[in-house]
Design brief:
The complex is a heterodimer. Chain A is mostly helical. Chain A has helices at 26-59, 89-122, 127-141, 145-157, 188-218, 225-242, 267-294, 297-305, 310-340, 352-363, 366-395; strands at residues 173-175, 178-181, 183-184, 249-250, 253-255, 258-260, 263-265. The chains are: A mainly alpha, B mainly alpha. Chain A: It is a multi-pass membrane protein.
Chain lengths: 400, 380
């Protein structure tokens, strides 16, 4: 690609000069420096490694990942997959990874929504709205996240006990045991309904693409939304009705000293999610504000001069340009949220760090425990950045 | 528009009339910024109501119903019944009044508290001097060295008649300032070397730097701190041991180094290629080129993002709470472990949060001002 713009005179390679064994030769200097630096770095690593091996022998600490298949014996309060303390360490760590993902995925979604909202509010013409958003951003960004998490956790623990719990709506209880809500008794029909929502979205997207291709061909705009609504909402409802429309609600109720039934959100999870979302939203708000401000006023005016409706101006002209500025910093904010979720260990939410930490305390195998934590986060970080880089490349400006 | 006014002949006797009250002054400002349409008006009214409610509620809690001090019983234990009877309708600032010395200075010997207090002032003075542009030259290095030595002497003591205080008894704000300042003092040179290495033509050095930066940036700081607290003792030969604070400090330096390196690298990349080529054409060696031509320009360009990264690290030092080092946040959390003060976490966290807020807000305002100042040549 670059060949096209390189002046042909420079395409010739410089003539190969024989290596001179002298400090004046740049290549010799390069080789010496590299050998020196690599030698020192690997020397240090080897020294640390041999110390470690020696210390492990002296202290009779087992090595290797054999412990993964032993019985864990550690209780985990929240688990997405079934788990008993008699299960293996491997299963306990898997539960931990899923708990990390549970808070990271929901946190990223909520932080994006709230952050975008606050970022737009920061640009509002209404003085009050923009100042409140600015105040929020400044205060939240200047206080350590760990302190905020402890603060939220203290507040949630200060709520009254289950017997005196807040009870704003039928079936919703807020107490120091967390939030209890009615839940749907899940059946096969519901899974089918959720799947058909996904299918509906995919079909609607394909239909939209087809309609646009037709518009490109003959210039006639086509109405997309009736078909889209029918596919995204009608299809799932039809599937649900066809499968007998099951609808049983599990209401929570007081039994003894605690609640039974319904869906529970633990105070630890709620505090962690609240802290992560409010903190990251402040950073995302700044990213969104900068992105919108990066699109010149002339772009809005030119689009309006072309006769586009305001919705189309935003969707076709402004957003694609703003997204180019927004996506890279947004990626690092998502990564930060995921890495910050490791602070869960401070308030007792059992994520991967917390469970791996307990594991390394029980087995004494510190190196393996920390290696597991690092491997999990490296995998998550690399996956997020690969996906965001792919998305970024898709929307990036195609230049000559 | 101005053409029209100029071309319109003034009729005799007419004077320049003042703009109508609805176009200038506070009324116009209100109309423009708060009541520009029905939606804006509705939002203003609703938000205004909510703000007034929230502020009044906060004032009630924090000032009107608040208790500022409680009596001690014969054993010196605080009597907090009065605070508990408020049932959350008022703040119990007594916990701050009673415990503020502990939160600020930890378990440092009580009668020696003036030493950590002076240390905090020295740190603040050091920050202010470093922020002034007239000191942005080589004089900054001796200033830092002298101040940091003085801080070490004050904290440890053992010289000039000061009693020796072992490091295990340090705590509170000085620990936070030590971790962040020493962390930056060492991480910054490291980051410059790593950034240069990542931009170098030497493949082995480049690979080493890329692996270091990406590994560190891919994992949370906690995992590095755990590594420092549980794995580090295994790394060292038998008998040799480094204390916990220093191990955490090394972890923070390695962590900060990777992030700062990326900021510095951005500065190196933003320099036009002509600067490098011109320096080469002058026959400067690599280190002359880097030291005299490249770094002075590149670093100046990234000072605002550097300050933002500093703010991040200042906040991140609070993570040492998890491995049990006695920094400001840990001291705050420990202050409410005592049975008498259990349940007053909100007041303590507000107090500690305010201290962090003051430091970070000052740095962030400084960085904004600096950014505007350094970009002045770009604006017309």
């Amino acid at each position: 690609m670059s060949d096209a713009i390189v002046d042909p005179r420079y395409r010739r390679k410089p003539p190969k000069r024989p290596l001179r064994l002298s400090w004046a030769d740049e290549r010799i200097r390069g080789i010496v420096w590299q050998v020196l630096v690599v030698g020192v770095v690997f020397g240090i690593i080897y020294w640390l490694w041999s110390n470690t091996v020696h210390n492990l022998e002296v202290r009779r600490i087992a090595t290797g990942f054999g412990f993964l298949h032993r019985e864990a014996g550690l209780p985990i309060a929240e688990h997405l997959i079934s788990y008993e303390p008699t299960d293996t360490y491997l299963r306990a760590l898997t539960v931990g990874v899923l708990n990390t993902l549970k808070v990271a995925v929901i946190g990223v979604i909520l932080a994006t929504i709230i952050g975008t909202f606050i970022g737009i509010a920061r640009l509002s013409k209404n003085f009050l709205v923009s100042k409140i958003a600015g105040f929020y951003i400044e205060v939240i960004r200047d206080i350590p996240l760990l302190l905020q998490l402890l603060f939220w956790y203290t507040i949630l623990q200060g709520l009254p006990g289950p017997r005196q719990s807040f009870h704003p709506v039928e079936g919703v209880f807020l107490s120091n045991r967390g939030l209890r809500m009615p839940s749907l008794v899940w059946e096969g029909a519901h899974t089918a309904t959720v799947l058909s929502v996904v299918a509906g979205i995919v079909l609607a997207w394909l239909y939209g693409r087809h309609a646009r291709a037709l518009q490109m061909a003959d210039g006639q705009p086509r109405r997309i939304w009736p078909a889209a609504v029918a596919l995204i909402f009608g299809l799932p409802v039809a599937v649900w009705l066809a499968l007998g429309a099951p609808w049983t609600i599990d209401w929570p109720a007081m039994r003894g000293f605690n609640f039974q039934g319904g869906m529970a959100i633990s105070p630890e999870y709620a505090a962690l999610l609240t802290g992560l979302v409010t903190y990251t939203a402040a950073f995302i708000a700044e990213v969104v504000r900068a992105g919108i401000q990066s699109v010149g006023l002339g772009q809005w005016e030119a689009a309006q001069a072309l006769g586009l409706r305001s919705g189309s101006v935003l969707r076709l002209i402004v957003l694609p340009q703003a997204l180019r500025v927004i996506i890279p910093p947004m990626t690092s904010n998502y990564l930060n949220l995921t890495k910050n979720s490791s602070l869960a260990v401070a308030i007792g939410y059992q994520d991967i760090v917390s469970i791996a930490n307990t594991t390394l305390n029980q087995t004494g195998q510190a190196i393996e425990g920390i290696a597991i934590i690092m491997a999990v986060y490296l995998t998550i970080s690399l996956s997020i950045s690969l996906f965001m880089n792919w998305y970024n490349a898709r929307i990036a400006l195609v230049e000559r | 528009m101005s053409d029209i006014t100029v071309n319109t002949p003034l009729t005799s006797g007419s004077e320049h009339r003042a703009a109508p009250i609805s176009a200038i002054g506070p009324v116009a400002w209100l109309r423009e910024n708060l009541f520009s349409g029905w939606l804006s008006t509705a939002v203003t009214l609703v938000l205004g109501y909510l703000i007034i409610r929230a502020v009044m509620g906060f004032v009630d809690w924090a000032f009107i119903n608040a208790i500022w001090s409680v009596p001690l019983n014969a054993n010196g234990v605080a009597q907090t019944q009065a605070c508990r009877e408020l049932h959350g309708s008022g703040a119990c600032w007594a916990v701050v009044t009673e415990k503020h010395r502990f939160m600020l200075f930890g378990t440092y010997p009580y009668e020696q508290h003036w030493r950590p207090a002076v240390v905090c002032l020295l740190f603040i003075g050091l920050f202010i001097v470093s922020a002034m542009r007239r000191f942005w030259n080589w004089t900054l290095i001796p200033i830092w060295m002298v101040t940091l030595t003085a801080i070490g002497m004050l904290m440890w003591g053992g010289v000039f008649g000061l009693p020796f205080v072992q490091q295990e008894r340090w705590g509170g704000l000085p620990i936070t300032l030590i971790l962040s300042t020493f962390g930056l003092a060492f991480a910054f040179p490291l980051s410059i070397l790593v950034a240069l290495g990542r931009r170098s033509n030497l493949p082995a050095i480049k690979v080493l730097c890329v692996v270091y930066v990406e590994l560190i940036r891919g994992v949370p700081l906690i995992s590095l701190l755990f590594m420092a607290s549980v794995m580090f003792p295994l790394f060292l030969p038998e008998g040799m041991n480094i204390d916990k604070l220093l191990r955490a400090q090394i972890a923070i330096i390695l962590f900060a180094g990777a992030y700062l390196a990326e900021v510095v690298r951005a500065g190196l990349q933003s320099l036009p290629k002509g600067q490098y080529e011109a320096a080469d054409a002058m026959g400067l060696s690599y280190w002359q080129k880097t030291g005299f031509i490249i770094l002075p320009q590149a670093l100046r360009m990234v000072i605002p993002p550097l300050v933002n990264t500093f703010i991040g690290f200042f906040k991140d030092t609070s993570l040492v709470l998890i491995i049990g080092i006695f920094d400001l946040l840990t001291a705050g959390k420990t202050a409410i472990v005592e049975p008498a003060w259990q349940g007053f976490g909100v007041e303590v966290y507000i107090f500690v949060g305010l201290i962090y807020l003051v430091f970070c807000f000052a740095m962030s305002k400084y960085s904004q001002g600096l950014e505007a100042d350094l970009n002045r040549h770009r604006r017309r």
